[in-house]
Amino acid sequence: IRPEDPAVLNNRGNALQALKRHAEALECFDRLLALLPNSADVLNNRANALMSLGRHDDAEASFNKALAMNPGHVQALLNRGKLHLARGWLAKGLSDLDAALTLKPDHFEAWLDKGMVLAAMRRFGEALISFDRALALEPGSWRVWNERGVACVLNGQFQDGLRCYDRAVSL
Predict the structure, then answer these.
(1) Are 26 and 49 in contact (CB under 8 A)?
(2) pLDDT tens sequence across 8-46
């Protein structure tokens, strides 16, 4: 394996991203993009690094380019949705999450994120449905039980919220 091998650069970039060394990860993904300029996966990874650096406009441009190359790139839709949420653009974020779920209806993370967006929009009934879909996929997720509890409490369903928190704590 050569130092400029695409797999090495991708793996190194992902490791750097996991270590929160986002600027170095971005350098890896930029080098990788020079080797694979038409890779939606590389553009998605690059956009994640940019998002972590707070360079939201650049991240959105990279996600958009990835999705122009591959409109069915579920992870790019999900990640762009998270970017929109970070910017407070709930409707745009929800649209991306719905698009991801249309392509992959069993995507746990998308159901969880959709529930959180709907709760933030004060659409609690729909949020609970999304959390239930996530729980159908991963019933042992303390995070979903917690977020479901938050939605219940915000909707005035305190007893149901408490049951969700108890379940989260028990996991």
Answers:
(1) yes
(2) 999 999 999 999 999 999 999 999 999 999 999 999 999
